[in-house]
Amino acid sequence: MKYKLVAIDMDGTLLNSNNQVSERTKVIIEKAKDKGTHIVLSTGRVLKSALSYSRSLNLKNPIVACNGAIIVDENANIIYKKPIDNSLVKEIVNLAMKKNIYYHFYDESRFYSHVKVDEVLQFYNEGNGNTIIDIKVFQDIEEIIKLKDLNVYKFLFIDDNRAKLQDLRMDLDKLGNIGTSSSWANNIEAMGLNVSKGEALRELCNRLKIMPEEVIAIGDSENDLSMLTFAGLGVAMGNGDEFIKKEADYITDSNDEDGVAKVIEKFVLE
């Protein structure tokens, strides 16, 4: 089988524990590009962060960001977007505030929250020197809702108390028109209904006239499951969640052992 597109999650997959792309992975990605393979970042991250990494790798390929809520083409033009219904934003914020759970949400380039947490910004701004993500801190959600052309693509909730997170997740699911997922043990993510990396990848492949069986998808967490299921070859990282490994067609090495590079070498370059 000739694979024409490789969709790669970022955190825990493409990026190692230092939030960086290894030199070996960079070389292998360049070889795959030279062969004409589409290398597509498919991430839960805000678009601006994904664009920065894509440019540092000189990919010039489409990007799936915000867990599939937005797709840009090789020139960074938005070709698909499914933001959360603005009528639900206030309700979602109130749920998080009531449960005293940290949250932020984002549009294409900026975070919004009621409090600034330096550790969160540092996470997104480290590992790739030219990534600068800022945050708009607000006192009242009403001042954000009234912004013209507001597009909220994803909410992220973080708390080390899993019971609190699961309770919040159940409440979010009850709202309707909201889909939930997770990318780390201590977070919950909320997007518009039926928004996922898998659905975005389906949309992108339709545009590129690429069949699912010509796709490799690589990931490590719950929010990657939909694209691993869609792809002809779904690959779980060695450091990935156990239930992702059980659903995958193939398990590669960890993100600190060049797992992504090894997949591309084996299935694209050999």
Describe it for me?
The protein is an alpha/beta fold and 270 residues long. The strands form 2 sheets. The chain has an 8-stranded mixed sheet, with helices on both faces. Strands 8-7-6-9-11-10 form a 6-stranded mixed sheet, with helices on one face. It has helices at 23-34, 47-56, 86-98, 118-125, 142-145, 162-175, 197-208, 225-230, 242-247, 259-269; strands at 5-8, 38-42, 63-65, 70-72, 78-81, 102-106, 110-113, 134-137, 154-158, 178-181, 187-192, 215-219, 233-236, 250-251. It has 10 helices and 14 strands. Helix content is 36%, strand content 21%. It has 2 domains: 5-81 and 196-269, HAD superfamily/HAD-like (Rossmann fold, 3-Layer(aba) Sandwich), CATH 3.40.50.1000; 86-192, Hypothetical Protein, Haloacid Dehalogenase-like Hydrolase, Chain: A, domain 2 (2-Layer Sandwich), CATH 3.30.1240.10. It is globular. One of its GO terms (molecular function) is hydrolase activity. Pfam families: Hydrolase_3 (PF08282).
